[in-house]
Design goal:
The complex is a heterodimer of chains A (308) and B (97).
Chain A: H1 8-16, E1 20-24, E2 27-33, H2 39-46, E3 61-66, E4 78-83, E5 92-93, H3 97-112, E6 116-126, E7 129-134, H4 141-148, E8 154-157, E9 160-164, E10 170-171, E11 177-180, H5 182-190, E12 200-203, E13 206-211, H6 215-219, E14 226-235, E15 242-245, H7 248-257, H8 262-265, H9 267-279, E16 281-287, H10 290-301
Parallel strand pairs in A: 2-3, 7-14, 14-16
Antiparallel strand pairs in A: 1-2, 3-4, 4-5, 6-7, 6-8, 6-9, 9-10, 11-13, 12-13, 15-16
Chain B: E1 8-9, E2 16-21, E3 24-29, E4 34-38, H1 40-51, H2 56-66, H3 75-88, E5 93-94
Antiparallel strand pairs in B: 1-5, 2-3, 3-4
Helix pairs in contact in B: 2-3
The chains are: A alpha+beta (308), B alpha+beta (97).
Chain lengths: 308, 97
């Protein structure tokens, strides 16, 4: 059973009662409350394809989107992201409950998930081979990811590469793809068939919207993939598309810098990056034009060389 | 400038993990958790000090022996800088007398 099998009324009753439990990639997540702003309808729309947990199924992450108890709530409605018994963030305006939820889930993963080696990276797959777009925020990796999954690539994740420490395979964590500012309209025109949630203006990252993960990617969340290409993208206004090989040693440094738990895992982290670098062809990517860069990366997936 | 008679080495308690791709090396210092990118010469020097304690002069001689004639013009200065760098990174240390 998936979330979309519930009517909105049934979903609302669960949300405000025992919580809505979902299987999101390798994690069970249970969410309660969420009566602020557009949280409930946005969550229901964006996670519609995700498998539902039964009420008694345990969850790694138990989240309450609750009204805070501070005095500020009397003159402006707010929302607090609560994980178990902790409030990791200051309250947000209630209107930003949904973006707060997505950022909170990200925080849960990069702070708490060490059973995988975790790299800050979008990951897409074709033919069983995964392409990692690894970069800090603002480099355009989510925009690229959103575009490529409308050109035949499968979404594994737009934010995290979850790498099996034993064999290096990448576990899917398909979730809504977070887009910012101009990327929202860019993707809407690049892929008019994309299904976008509401735009939340005035977040601390500017305007933010989330694109629904393709149903096929969610349904195949149990199918891991072998990493094949490690790409470090940088958006540059007006830049010509340039995919340039980067040496393995420099790719090692970049990948370890982009990891959330390389230092925590110590020797295991070193082994994980070493294996990833051995498994992948590594490239720097400069881009501005979405069509050009999609063609270049498609060339990798199709075995064509478009390297400059 | 390092004293040419000081003995240097990688501490026996320092565990280093190595990866090599062509002429580039990555070394991970397990104790410090630091990762370092080394070129071939730096890797050669560090590996030399992993096997033994040696003075600057002995190190220079070892490096000279491995470098083709005609390519060793600036070797003294390069090795001196490498020694300072590896010391700064905590990868080598003077041996207590």
């Amino acid at each position: 059973m998936i979330l979309g099998d519930l009517t909105f009324e049934e979903f609302w009753l669960r949300l405000s009662g025992p919580g809505v439990g979902l299987r999101i990639g390798p994690f069970n997540v249970r969410v309660q409350d969420g009566q602020q702003g557009l949280f409930a309808p946005t969550f229901h729309f964006l996670y519609s394809d995700f498998p539902l947990l039964s009420d008694d199924e345990p969850a790694e992450f138990r989240i309450r989107m609750r009204d805070p108890t501070g005095v500020r709530r009397w003159w402006r409605r707010q929302v607090q992201f609560r994980l178990d018994d902790t409030d990791p963030f200051y309250p947000f305006p209630a209107s930003l409950a949904y973006p707060l939820f997505e950022w909170g889930i990200n925080w849960c993963i990069y702070e708490h998930v060490h059973e995988f080696f975790v790299i800050h990276s979008a990951v897409i797959e074709k033919g069983g081979r995964a392409l990692l777009l690894s970069a800090p925020p603002g480099s355009g990796k989510s925009t690229l990811c959103a575009a490529l999954i409308h050109r035949g690539w499968r979404l594994l994740s737009d934010e995290f590469a979850l790498i099996d420490k034993a064999d290096g395979r990448i576990f899917p964590l398909p979730r809504p793809v977070g887009l910012k500012e101009k990327s929202i309209s860019l993707i809407q025109s690049f892929a008019p068939e994309s299904r976008m949630g509401p735009t939340f203006a005035d977040t601390n990252k500017g305007a933010v919207a989330h694109m629904r993960a393709p149903g096929d990617a969610v349904a195949r969340a149990g199918e891991s993939a072998l990493p094949a290409w490690l790409v470090f993208p940088t958006y540059g206004a007006g830049a010509a598309t340039a995919l340039s090989p980067v040496t393995k040693a420099l790719a090692f440094i970049a990948a370890s810098d982009n990891s959330f738990n390389y230092k925590i895992l110590g020797e295991t982290g070193f082994e994980c990056v070493s294996r990833l670098i051995d498994q992948c062809e590594c490239f720097d990517l400069r881009f501005s034009d979405l069509n050009g860069v999609v063609d270049a990366l498609d060339g990798l997936g199709a075995g064509r060389s478009s390297v400059q | 400038m390092p004293d040419n008679k000081i003995l240097w080495r990688v501490s026996p308690s320092t565990k280093l993990m190595w990866r090599r791709w062509g002429d580039e090396f990555i070394v991970y210092n397990v104790a410090s958790g630091q990762t370092h990118y080394l070129n071939a010469l730096a890797a050669q020097v560090l590996q030399y000090f992993q096997g033994q304690a040696a003075t600057f002069d002995e190190l220079v001689q070892d490096v000279r022996d491995s470098v083709p004639e005609g390519e060793d013009a600036c070797i003294l200065e390069r090795v001196r800088e490498l020694l300072k760098g590896l010391d700064y990174l905590g990868l080598i240390a003077p041996v207590n007398p």
